[in-house]
């Protein structure tokens, strides 16, 4: 890595670069179960919807976008408001450079500032040995970030002529109380853990 990773809030105008980071994951791997990469316009709309309530972060390295992370609704029922599903993508060729960790740490701080208590990661994994399109590296990364495995679903995703498993991992951020205050929309927080 030649420079320092800078994490900041995403902007809609980042959509084209972020869609380009995501595209090879769709076309060449089973890391995502999407079959067709979203267009930059579709990607921008996804970002816009996410940013209405949750943090959406990007990582820059030497002036280029090299990753992104965001949170979204875990389940669409009010009792789940304190839980989120997280996603992190690092540009191919930049694994092991600390980008995923920088994004995750900033995302965790932003979510904690909102009052989120449970972070969940839905991760595709091989059904057996690693193959050229999918390994358990994401599972190991999340373990390193403090998540625990809470469930595995077997042969639930079909892509590229193969069946893949999916796991759920969980990280608890705060105390669960009987008088729990509501989660604050991210745009209404005064988070200073990322550049705005």
From TrEMBL:
It is an enzyme of class 2 (transferase). The keyword Cytoplasm does not apply. Keywords: Acyltransferase, Transferase. Residues 5-174 form the N-acetyltransferase domain. This is Phosphinothricin N-acetyltransferase. Its EC number is 2.3.1.183. Gene3D superfamilies: 3.40.630.30. InterPro entries: Acyl_CoA_acyltransferase, GNAT_dom. One of its GO terms (molecular function) is phosphinothricin N-acetyltransferase activity.
């Amino acid at each position: 890595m030649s420079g320092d990773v800078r994490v900041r809030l995403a902007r809609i105008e980042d959509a084209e670069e972020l869609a380009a980071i995501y595209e090879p994951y769709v076309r060449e791997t089973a890391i995502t179960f999407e079959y067709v990469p979203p267009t930059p316009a579709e990607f921008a709309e996804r970002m816009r919807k996410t940013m209405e309530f949750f943090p959406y972060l990007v990582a820059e390295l030497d002036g280029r976008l090299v990753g992104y992370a965001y949170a979204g609704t875990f389940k669409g029922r009010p009792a789940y408001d304190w839980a989120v599903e997280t996603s992190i993508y690092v540009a191919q060729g930049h694994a092991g450079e600390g980008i995923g960790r920088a994004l995750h740490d900033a995302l965790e701080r932003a979510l904690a500032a909102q009052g989120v208590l449970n972070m969940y990661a839905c991760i595709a994994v091989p059904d057996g040995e690693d193959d050229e399109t999918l390994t358990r590296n994401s599972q190991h990364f999340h373990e390193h970030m403090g998540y625990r495995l809470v469930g595995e679903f077997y042969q639930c995703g079909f892509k590229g002529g193969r069946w893949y498993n999916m796991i759920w991992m969980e990280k608890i951020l705060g105390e669960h109380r009987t008088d729990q205050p509501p989660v604050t929309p991210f745009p209404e927080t005064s988070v200073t853990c990322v550049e705005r």
